[in-house]
Amino acid sequence: MKMNGEKIISAQINEVWSALNDPEKLKLAIPGAESVEKNDDENLTATVKTKIGPISARFTGKISLSNINPPFSYTLTGEGTGGAAGFAKGSANVELIEVQEGTLLKYDVNANVGGKLAQIGQRLIDTAANKLADDFFGKFNEILNKDDIEIDNIEIDINDNKGLSQNSWIVILVILTSLSLLFWYSLS
């Protein structure tokens, strides 16, 4: 199976590179990811639960990074097994290019599947793979933008935090006084 594509990520190239190498962000972005662990700078292990057509499986895989050229490109090589569902192995070349909108992420995947997965048909596998890629990039983009939004909100909260206004204090005091009187009256 061959698959290639490109997506615009609304973040700077260094942020995208960092997120692509952050196991926690990958775990959040990969559909069905149960764990993503970084063994060292060039090796990851992952467990992903997915469904392709009528086949559901939990895949455990190893991913190695090579041809690393930070923050512009690398090659991912991996293989995973899903028990009776079969196996998948392959490689992907990933390239990051700075563009006006953020970062253009280009990928070129070459993969092989075997076992029950191979029996369900190439068209179904291709459709599922494209959907998983779209889901991943959509979530990945959302995660990077969410970090920016949280930072912006923190800065706004810090800048706007000037204490309670006089009117707010009066309202709070009236409410507390009313509750105190109500509580005292109910005890009497």
Could you please describe the fold and organization of this structure?
The chain is α+β, with helices and mostly antiparallel strands and 188 residues long. The chain has a single domain, classed as 2-Layer Sandwich (Alpha-D-Glucose-1,6-Bisphosphate, Chain A, domain 4), CATH 3.30.530.20. 43% of the residues lie in helices and 40% in strands. The protein contains five helices and seven strands. A seven-stranded antiparallel beta sheet has the order 1-7-6-5-4-3-2. α2 crosses α4. About 10% of the residues have low confidence.
Can you describe this structure in just a few lines?
With 188 residues, the protein is α+β, with helices and mostly antiparallel strands. It has helices at 13-20, 23-29, 116-119, 122-160, 166-187; strands at residues 2-9, 33-40, 43-52, 55-69, 73-81, 87-99, 102-114. The chain has a single domain, classed as 2-Layer Sandwich (Alpha-D-Glucose-1,6-Bisphosphate, Chain A, domain 4).
Summarize the SSE layout with pairings.
Blueprint: E1 2-9, H1 13-20, H2 23-29, E2 33-40, E3 43-52, E4 55-69, E5 73-81, E6 87-99, E7 102-114, H3 116-119, H4 122-160, H5 166-187
Antiparallel strand pairs: 1-7, 2-3, 3-4, 4-5, 5-6, 6-7
Helix pairs in contact: 2-4
